[in-house]
Amino acid sequence: MVGTKTVEVTCEKCGKLYETEAVDYIDLHDDRDLIRNLKSGKANRVQCPKCKKVMYLKRSIVINFEPESKIVVFDSSAKSKAAKEEIQKTFENVVAINETLEETGNETEFMVLHDLTKLKRLLEQYLKVYD
Ligand SMILES: [Zn+2]
Fold first, then answer.
1. Is the Cα dihedral 43, 45, 49, 52 positive or negative?
2. Can you spell out the DSSP letters for 40-74?
3. Which of 26, 71, 73, 88 sits most deeply, having the most CB atoms within 10 A of its CB?
4. Residue 60 and residue 54: Cα distance in Å, rounded?
């Protein structure tokens, strides 16, 4: 299941405001065709319908490495340790909502990445095992 959300984007070239689908969540097990986009860094690539300017949305994408108990948040703007820790803390707060989630959370390896090269390596390892 892919989680998407309709977002409004303002074109940085011509200023046009348009709506687009942003990817929030990807389950690698179900969304094989999206792995290629992830690897090339194009998962949240959008294009202005008016002037065709291509932009990349600055959003994080949650990637579920099912059946491995691993969740990776890819956010190219989370470069600093503090930014990574903040995302990590959000995850911990979410799983603390109830006991079942907390159990799942404790068994899950959670990682925040900003580096596309590292994400690529993880995706390639995953494909080697599960493809
Ligand atoms: Zn434009």
1. negative
2. TT-TTEEE-TTT--EEE----EEEE-TTSSEEEEE
3. 26
4. 18
Q: 41-72: per-residue pLDDT in tens?
A: 888 999 999 999 999 998 899 999 989 999 99
Asked whether 105 and 71 are in contact (CB, 8 A), the reply is no
Per the listing, tokens 């995850």 go with: 91
Q: How far is the CA of 110 from the centre of ligand 1 (A)?
A: 37
pLDDT, tens digit (0-9, with 9 covering 90-100), for 13-30: 999 999 999 999 999 988
50 CA to centre of own chain? 27
With a CB cutoff of 8 Å and minimum separation 6, the contacts of 36 are none
| Mode of pairing for the β-strands spanning 61-64 and 17-27 | parallel
Neighbours of ion ligand 1 (CB under 5 A): 11, 13-14, 16, 48, 50-51, 53
Other C-beta atoms closer than 10 Å to the C-beta of 85 total 12
